[in-house]
Protein backbone atom coordinates (compact mmCIF):
# COMPACT_ATOMS: atom_id res chain seq x y z
CA UNK A 1 0.00 0.00 0.00
CA UNK A 2 1.56 3.27 -1.12
CA UNK A 3 1.20 6.26 1.18
CA UNK A 4 -0.50 8.27 -1.60
CA UNK A 5 -3.20 5.63 -1.99
CA UNK A 6 -3.74 5.40 1.76
CA UNK A 7 -4.07 9.18 1.98
CA UNK A 8 -6.64 9.24 -0.79
CA UNK A 9 -8.73 6.43 0.63
CA UNK A 10 -8.62 8.21 3.99
CA UNK A 11 -9.87 11.47 2.43
CA UNK A 12 -12.73 9.62 0.73
CA UNK A 13 -13.58 7.86 3.99
CA UNK A 14 -12.84 4.49 2.37
CA UNK A 15 -9.65 3.50 4.18
CA UNK A 16 -10.02 0.15 5.93
CA UNK A 17 -8.00 -0.89 8.97
CA UNK A 18 -6.18 -3.36 6.74
CA UNK A 19 -5.02 -0.48 4.51
CA UNK A 20 -3.15 1.09 7.43
CA UNK A 21 -1.53 -2.14 8.55
CA UNK A 22 -0.63 -3.09 4.96
CA UNK A 23 1.04 0.30 4.54
CA UNK A 24 3.07 -0.27 7.70
CA UNK A 25 4.02 -3.77 6.57
CA UNK A 26 5.20 -2.44 3.21
CA UNK A 27 7.49 -0.03 5.05
CA UNK A 28 9.08 -2.91 6.94
CA UNK A 29 9.89 -4.58 3.61
CA UNK A 30 11.68 -1.35 2.70
CA UNK A 31 13.82 -1.76 5.85
CA UNK A 32 12.38 1.35 7.49
CA UNK A 33 13.14 1.14 11.19
CA UNK A 34 10.40 2.38 13.50
CA UNK A 35 8.96 0.64 16.53
CA UNK A 36 5.55 2.24 15.95
CA UNK A 37 5.50 1.15 12.30
CA UNK A 38 6.33 -2.40 13.42
CA UNK A 39 3.53 -2.34 15.99
CA UNK A 40 1.05 -1.01 13.43
CA UNK A 41 2.04 -3.77 11.00
CA UNK A 42 1.64 -6.44 13.69
CA UNK A 43 -1.90 -5.24 14.48
CA UNK A 44 -2.89 -6.44 11.02
CA UNK A 45 -2.47 -10.04 12.20
CA UNK A 46 -4.95 -9.65 15.04
CA UNK A 47 -8.35 -11.23 14.57
CA UNK A 48 -10.24 -8.05 15.49
CA UNK A 49 -7.98 -4.97 15.33
CA UNK A 50 -9.03 -2.02 17.48
CA UNK A 51 -9.70 1.03 15.24
CA UNK A 52 -8.52 3.45 17.93
CA UNK A 53 -5.29 1.52 18.35
CA UNK A 54 -4.72 1.52 14.59
CA UNK A 55 -5.25 5.27 14.42
CA UNK A 56 -3.00 5.88 17.43
CA UNK A 57 -0.06 3.94 15.98
CA UNK A 58 -0.69 5.40 12.53
CA UNK A 59 -0.28 8.90 13.95
CA UNK A 60 2.83 7.82 15.87
CA UNK A 61 4.25 6.29 12.70
CA UNK A 62 3.68 9.52 10.80
CA UNK A 63 5.61 11.38 13.50
CA UNK A 64 8.46 8.86 13.37
CA UNK A 65 8.70 9.23 9.60
CA UNK A 66 8.31 13.01 9.65
CA UNK A 67 5.19 12.78 7.50
CA UNK A 68 2.18 15.10 7.67
CA UNK A 69 -1.35 14.57 6.45
CA UNK A 70 -2.38 17.01 3.69
CA UNK A 71 -5.67 18.85 3.76
CA UNK A 72 -8.64 17.29 1.95
CA UNK A 73 -8.12 19.22 -1.29
CA UNK A 74 -4.46 18.26 -1.58
CA UNK A 75 -5.24 14.71 -0.50
CA UNK A 76 -7.74 14.30 -3.34
CA UNK A 77 -5.21 15.65 -5.82
CA UNK A 78 -2.52 13.25 -4.60
CA UNK A 79 -4.93 10.30 -4.77
CA UNK A 80 -6.24 11.27 -8.21
CA UNK A 81 -2.71 11.39 -9.59
CA UNK A 82 -1.83 8.04 -7.99
CA UNK A 83 -4.94 6.40 -9.44
CA UNK A 84 -4.17 7.82 -12.90
CA UNK A 85 -0.65 6.42 -12.68
CA UNK A 86 -2.09 3.01 -11.82
CA UNK A 87 -4.49 3.19 -14.79
CA UNK A 88 -1.64 4.09 -17.15
CA UNK A 89 0.64 1.33 -15.84
CA UNK A 90 -2.10 -1.29 -16.03
CA UNK A 91 -2.16 -1.90 -12.27
CA UNK A 92 -5.77 -0.65 -12.13
CA UNK A 93 -8.51 -1.60 -14.57
CA UNK A 94 -9.38 1.59 -16.51
CA UNK A 95 -13.15 1.34 -16.06
CA UNK A 96 -12.75 0.60 -12.35
CA UNK A 97 -10.46 3.62 -12.10
CA UNK A 98 -13.14 5.83 -13.63
CA UNK A 99 -15.72 4.48 -11.17
CA UNK A 100 -13.49 5.65 -8.31
CA UNK A 101 -12.47 8.98 -9.84
CA UNK A 102 -16.01 10.04 -10.76
CA UNK A 103 -16.80 10.36 -7.04
CA UNK A 104 -14.12 13.05 -6.70
CA UNK A 105 -16.37 15.65 -8.36
CA UNK A 106 -18.94 15.68 -5.56
CA UNK A 107 -16.34 14.96 -2.85
CA UNK A 108 -14.35 18.05 -3.94
CA UNK A 109 -17.50 20.20 -3.66
CA UNK A 110 -17.74 20.18 -7.46
CA UNK A 111 -14.28 21.45 -8.30
CA UNK A 112 -14.35 21.83 -12.09
CA UNK A 113 -11.23 19.77 -12.86
CA UNK A 114 -12.87 16.60 -11.50
CA UNK A 115 -15.90 17.03 -13.77
CA UNK A 116 -13.71 15.38 -16.42
CA UNK A 117 -14.23 12.01 -14.71
CA UNK A 118 -17.92 12.57 -14.08
CA UNK A 119 -18.42 13.38 -17.78
CA UNK A 120 -16.33 10.41 -18.88
CA UNK A 121 -18.33 8.07 -16.65
CA UNK A 122 -21.55 9.27 -18.27
CA UNK A 123 -20.13 8.82 -21.75
CA UNK A 124 -18.92 5.30 -20.93
CA UNK A 125 -22.44 4.41 -19.83
CA UNK A 126 -23.79 5.78 -23.12
CA UNK A 127 -21.31 4.09 -25.47
CA UNK A 128 -21.79 0.77 -23.68
CA UNK A 129 -25.45 1.14 -24.62
CA UNK A 130 -24.49 2.05 -28.21
CA UNK A 131 -25.89 5.56 -27.85
CA UNK A 132 -22.76 7.57 -28.72
CA UNK A 133 -21.11 10.16 -26.49
CA UNK A 134 -21.84 13.67 -25.20
CA UNK A 135 -18.47 15.03 -24.04
CA UNK A 136 -15.62 12.82 -25.22
CA UNK A 137 -15.07 12.83 -28.99
CA UNK A 138 -14.12 9.50 -30.48
CA UNK A 139 -14.94 7.34 -27.46
CA UNK A 140 -16.32 3.90 -28.37
CA UNK A 141 -17.04 0.68 -26.52
CA UNK A 142 -14.11 -0.88 -28.38
CA UNK A 143 -11.46 1.74 -27.57
CA UNK A 144 -12.59 2.68 -24.07
CA UNK A 145 -9.62 1.18 -22.19
CA UNK A 146 -6.99 3.00 -24.25
CA UNK A 147 -9.15 6.14 -24.28
CA UNK A 148 -9.32 6.15 -20.47
CA UNK A 149 -5.54 5.75 -20.29
CA UNK A 150 -5.21 8.78 -22.56
CA UNK A 151 -7.51 10.81 -20.31
CA UNK A 152 -5.51 9.68 -17.25
CA UNK A 153 -2.23 10.80 -18.84
CA UNK A 154 -3.80 14.11 -19.81
CA UNK A 155 -5.33 14.58 -16.35
CA UNK A 156 -1.92 14.34 -14.65
CA UNK A 157 -0.69 17.01 -17.06
CA UNK A 158 -3.67 19.23 -16.21
CA UNK A 159 -3.08 18.84 -12.47
CA UNK A 160 0.48 20.08 -12.98
CA UNK A 161 -0.57 22.98 -15.24
CA UNK A 162 -1.59 26.45 -14.08
CA UNK A 163 -4.99 26.54 -15.77
CA UNK A 164 -6.94 29.79 -16.17
CA UNK A 165 -9.91 30.35 -13.86
CA UNK A 166 -12.38 30.06 -16.75
CA UNK A 167 -10.68 27.04 -18.31
CA UNK A 168 -13.91 25.12 -18.79
CA UNK A 169 -15.49 28.10 -20.54
CA UNK A 170 -12.85 27.91 -23.27
CA UNK A 171 -13.06 26.12 -26.59
CA UNK A 172 -10.50 24.98 -29.14
CA UNK A 173 -11.24 25.37 -32.84
CA UNK A 174 -9.96 22.59 -35.10
CA UNK A 175 -10.27 24.89 -38.10
CA UNK A 176 -8.19 27.96 -37.21
CA UNK A 177 -6.54 26.86 -33.96
CA UNK A 178 -8.27 29.56 -31.90
CA UNK A 179 -8.28 29.01 -28.12
CA UNK A 180 -10.80 31.13 -26.24
CA UNK A 181 -14.44 31.47 -25.33
CA UNK A 182 -16.94 30.68 -28.05
CA UNK A 183 -19.81 32.79 -29.34
CA UNK A 184 -23.44 31.86 -29.96
CA UNK A 185 -25.09 32.00 -33.37
CA UNK A 186 -28.83 31.99 -33.95
CA UNK A 187 -29.70 29.38 -36.58
CA UNK A 188 -33.49 29.37 -36.33
CA UNK A 189 -34.76 32.36 -38.39
CA UNK A 190 -31.89 34.68 -37.36
CA UNK A 191 -33.49 37.60 -39.23
CA UNK A 192 -36.52 37.56 -36.91
CA UNK A 193 -36.41 39.58 -33.65
CA UNK A 194 -36.27 37.28 -30.63
CA UNK A 195 -39.39 38.78 -29.01
CA UNK A 196 -41.42 38.26 -32.18
CA UNK A 197 -40.16 34.70 -32.56
CA UNK A 198 -41.14 33.89 -28.97
CA UNK A 199 -44.57 35.44 -29.50
CA UNK A 200 -45.20 33.34 -32.61
CA UNK A 201 -43.56 30.03 -31.71
CA UNK A 202 -43.83 30.14 -27.89
CA UNK A 203 -40.12 29.29 -27.48
CA UNK A 204 -36.68 30.81 -27.92
CA UNK A 205 -34.65 30.64 -31.13
CA UNK A 206 -32.23 27.75 -31.58
CA UNK A 207 -28.57 28.68 -31.09
CA UNK A 208 -25.26 26.92 -31.61
CA UNK A 209 -21.71 27.57 -30.43
CA UNK A 210 -19.28 28.95 -33.00
CA UNK A 211 -15.60 29.85 -32.97
CA UNK A 212 -15.22 33.53 -32.07
CA UNK A 213 -12.43 33.84 -34.63
CA UNK A 214 -13.42 31.95 -37.82
CA UNK A 215 -17.12 31.33 -36.99
CA UNK A 216 -16.74 27.57 -37.50
CA UNK A 217 -19.62 25.79 -35.71
CA UNK A 218 -19.19 23.60 -32.65
CA UNK A 219 -15.57 24.15 -31.57
CA UNK A 220 -14.31 21.56 -29.07
CA UNK A 221 -15.08 22.48 -25.46
CA UNK A 222 -12.74 21.78 -22.54
CA UNK A 223 -15.19 19.11 -21.37
CA UNK A 224 -13.97 17.19 -24.42
CA UNK A 225 -10.74 15.17 -24.28
CA UNK A 226 -9.90 16.38 -27.79
CA UNK A 227 -10.53 20.01 -26.84
CA UNK A 228 -8.16 19.74 -23.88
CA UNK A 229 -5.56 18.06 -26.10
CA UNK A 230 -5.70 21.02 -28.50
CA UNK A 231 -5.40 23.44 -25.58
CA UNK A 232 -2.33 21.71 -24.15
CA UNK A 233 -0.70 21.47 -27.57
CA UNK A 234 -1.24 25.19 -28.15
CA UNK A 235 -0.12 26.40 -24.73
CA UNK A 236 2.76 24.09 -23.80
CA UNK A 237 6.17 23.59 -25.33
CA UNK A 238 6.88 20.11 -26.75
CA UNK A 239 9.29 19.33 -23.89
CA UNK A 240 6.61 19.96 -21.24
CA UNK A 241 3.83 17.87 -22.74
Protein described:
This protein is mainly α and 241 residues long. It has 3 domains: 3-64, no CATH class; 72-160, no CATH class; 167-238, no CATH class. Helix content is 51%, strand content 7%. The chain has helices at residues 3-11, 17-29, 35-43, 51-64, 72-89, 94-101, 104-107, 115-128, 144-159, 194-201, 225-235, and strands at residues 170-172, 179-181, 183-186, 207-210, 220-221. A 3-stranded antiparallel sheet has the order 2-1-5, covered by helices on one side. A two-stranded antiparallel sheet has the order 3-4. It is elongated and about 80 Å long. The two termini are 29 Å apart. The relative contact order is 0.09. The model has no long low-confidence stretch (mean pLDDT 92).
| Helix and strand element order | HHHHHHHHHEEEHEEH
Across the major sheet, the strand order is: 2-1-5
User: How many E-type strands?
Assistant: 5
By secondary-structure content and strand pairing, the structural class works out as mainly alpha
* Major beta sheet summary: 3 strands, antiparallel
Kindly, what is the distance between the CA atoms of the first and last residues, rounded to a whole number of angstroms? 29 Å
The low-confidence parts are none
Q: Number of domains in the coordinates?
A: 3
Estimated share of beta-strand residues: 5-15%
Average predicted confidence as pLDDT: 92
Give the helix tally.
Answer: 11
Radius of gyration: 24 Å
- Overall outline: elongated
Helix content: 40-55%
Amino acid sequence: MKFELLLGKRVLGKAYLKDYTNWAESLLYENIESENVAILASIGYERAPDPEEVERYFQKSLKDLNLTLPDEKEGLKIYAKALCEQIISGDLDPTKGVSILESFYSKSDYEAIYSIWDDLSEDLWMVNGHEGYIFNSGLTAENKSEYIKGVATQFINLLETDLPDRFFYLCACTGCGYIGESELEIIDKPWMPNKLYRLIYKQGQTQRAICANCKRPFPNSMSDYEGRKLYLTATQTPSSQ
